[in-house]
Each structure stands twice: as C-alpha cells, then as structure tokens.
Specification:
single chain, about 400 residues, mainly alpha, two-stranded antiparallel ribbon, 2 strands, about 0% strand, disordered N terminus, disordered C terminus, binds zinc ion
Length: about 400
C-alpha cells in the first residue's frame, strides 16, 4: 500500500542546524512555540551547548592562572549583575515595582542582558508564571513538585521552557526594542564578554605589573563570575521554597532566609515577596538585609528610576501579628522544654496566664488567609486578560 506525499509527515528538521539558529535567534522554532511548550519535560542537550560551555569555561583557570585583579573583577561583576537580576529582571520587568522612562527601561534591559540569563521578557514571563502556579504541578521550578536539581538547573534545559510566550507579557512585548533584545539574547552577553577580554588585554599591555591579560580576565570576569551568578540566582528557585522561616501563611511553601538574602542581595525574603509582590523591597524590616532595595533607592536619586512602591501599612500590621504569634508560640514551647521556665511559671502564674491569653488573643485577631498577593495593576490586568484568552489546562 502506498502513501501519498501529502499523507507523509513532514520530516523533522535536523537538530544541529536548528539548534545553531536557536543559539542566535531564540524565537526560531520550526514546530511553533505552542507545540514546544506542550512537550513533556526533557533536556535538550544540543540547545544547551552554550550553557555547558559557560560551565566548562571555568576550567580555563588551569591555563590562565590567577591574579588579584581578575578575582576582584569576578567578585564585583557577580554583585553588579546580581543587582541586575534582582533589581531589574525581577523587581522591574517581572513586577513593575517602580517606574522608569522608555530609554531607562532599554538601558535596564541592556544591563540585565549582561547576566546571561536570557532576555528580560523570557525571564519575566517565566517568573510571573511561577507566581501564578507556585508549588503546583504547572510551576516550572518547584522543588516540591519536580525535586531539587530540576528546580535548580534542569528546568532551563528543557525544550518546553525555551520559548517566550509574548501573549502573556503584552505590557512588555509592545516595545520592539525589548523584543529584539529578547529574541537575540546572546548579543549583549557576547559584547560583554568581548569587552572584558578587551579590558584585560589593555591592562596586560599598559599595566603589566597587575599580572593579568585578556584570556585571564575573560575566564574569571565572564565564565567564573557568570557561572556563580547563575547558581546564586538558581538558589532562589531550588531553595527559597525549602529553607528558612515562613512568616506569612501563603498558598505556596515560600520561605524567608537570611543566607539566601546575602547570596542574592535581598531575594531571600521570598515569603515576604510571595505575600506581597508589588513592593520594591523584599526585606520588610531594617534587619532584613535587602541590598537590592538600597541600590534601587540610590538609583532613584539619579532620576533614572522613580516611584518605588512601599510595603502597605496593612501588610506590615499583618507581619507584626504573625511575628507576635510566632514569638508567643516559641515562648510556650520553651516553657515545656526548659525546667527553669517551668519554675518561673510556678513563681509567676499570673504572668504565664497573661502570656497564654495574649497568644490566644493574637491568634483570634489574625486576619483570614489572604487572597493571591496583589500585584501591580497592569500586571494584574495582563494576568486576567491572559486567563480569559488562554485558559490554562491544569495538570494533575
Ligand atoms: Zn517575584
Ligand atoms: Zn517562589
């Protein structure tokens, strides 16, 4: 029995040229982005070769050696670009927690591009999706659903997570300059890497006493620094829903962690952020170190950005009530654990009764579980519109 030409399935394009084109043009998808997104999770090794090279490039330190200036450059570029991840990709493009001009927005997108974490629009699309489906089966990087390693690194190697769904970030996709940077998302990293090489070569030629050169600066300033930057950022996906304390009873398992806040310049206050996404600061108190917020505050003095959004009074009151209940519960546990507290209870029964009454009162006055955290108006409108236009099938 013969099969006519029209009945035959069209041959699948060879993976090598397709992957090569996708390294340059990330919007190139022969089968269409919808089909890619509907595929099951699977590592696309060809597509990941640049990511593998990024990690393998760190081994270059064996050949290029080390110098103080190369190491300090790597450290400085880690923090300068971690600020771009958190202050720009996260707090501006994903949540619009402050305002800027169109030129300012473009400059911020360029700065964000040096992080080598793809374009601002791809980043914002996936991050908004995370907030909509946190710790549910549809969440691309929930450690509770997919395990630690998949949520840390696996999910970005999966074919289904490569495309950007522009229909769900229309508030950003209306700017062609942002779409261009998102589509050709290797352009900024390439220029950035070449610039580091150029600076290193110039230092080698004109300041030989520093003991560096182009290749050494490229390995430390680009490959080592960027690899650490990736894993520092990925800790939020893999660990911020596992490690730390929960202040707010959010519908996901987000947590607050001082250690993660140090690594990521403030993103460790993830439970605060899941409770209220629209504020520029993630650390709600002065002792919740949030260097990204201090940096954004400083940037606002230059007028590049403005309109930083505060944490509303109602949220701060809710935080105070939650902390009060937690401290009373800790005191109650201590009474059972430590004999000296039991003795104290006998000596001062009235004080113990007062403490228990206070704890009960605080629990009674706790507000009902909040609805999904309020997000910025245009983001909220975008989400609603998307839900109408593209109802999401729930995977169980
Ligand atoms: Zn967020
Ligand atoms: Zn989260």
């Amino acid at each position: 029995m013969s099969v006519s030409d029209s009945d035959r399935p069209s041959p699948r394009p060879s993976r090598v040229p397709v992957a090569f084109l996708q390294w340059i043009d990330s919007d190139y998808t022969p089968e269409g982005p919808e089909k890619m997104r509907s595929e099951p999770d699977k590592v696309d090794w060809m597509r990941c070769i640049p990511f593998i090279i990024l990690h393998a490039g760190c081994l270059g330190i064996i050949w290029v050696g080390v110098s103080s200036i190369a190491v300090w450059t790597a450290v400085a570029l880690y923090f300068v670009r971690m600020f771009a991840v958190t202050g720009i990709y996260h707090r501006y493009f994903s949540h619009k927690t402050y305002s800027t001009s169109r030129l300012g927005q473009f400059l911020l997108a360029l700065w964000g591009g040096t992080t080598v974490q793809r374009g601002a629009l791809w980043w914002a699309y996936h991050h908004r999706h995370h907030h909509q489906h946190s710790d549910e089966p549809d969440d691309a990087h929930s450690p509770h659903v997919h395990g630690f390693w998949w949520s840390h690194i696996g999910w970005i190697t999966s074919r289904r997570n490569f495309p950007t769904d522009y229909s769900k970030i229309k508030d950003l996709a209306k700017y062609p300059e942002l779409v261009w940077l998102n589509r050709f998302d290797t352009a900024v990293p390439l220029v950035f890497a070449l610039s580091i090489f150029g600076v290193g070569a110039a230092l080698g030629a004109y300041a030989p006493e520093l003991g560096t050169n182009g290749w050494q600066m490229l390995v430390w300033g680009f490959f080592v620094s960027t690899t650490f930057l990736f894993h520092g950022t990925a800790c939020i996906n893999s660990m911020a829903h596992l490690m730390g304390r929960r202040r707010f009873n959010t519908s996901d398992d987000s947590r607050n962690s001082f250690i993660l806040a140090l690594i990521t310049l403030g993103e460790g206050w993830h439970n605060n952020h899941h409770r209220y996404q629209s504020s520029t600061r993630n650390g709600f108190y002065w002792w919740e170190l949030d260097i990204t917020y201090y940096g954004l505050k400083a940037l606002s003095w230059t007028r590049l950005i403005w309109g930083l959004k505060p944490v509303p009074k109602s949220i701060m009151e809710e935080a105070a009530r939650a902390d009060h209940v937690t401290s009373i519960a800790a005191a109650q546990r201590a009474v059972h654990v430590h004999p000296e507290f039991s003795s104290l209870k006998k000596v001062f029964p009235a004080a113990a009764a007062f403490a228990v009454a206070t704890a009960s009162a605080a629990q009674a006055t706790m507000p009902p579980k909040p609805e999904d955290p309020a997000i910025h108006k245009d983001v909220a409108e975008q989400v609603q519109q998307n839900a109408k236009e593209n109802p999401q099938p729930r995977v169980i």
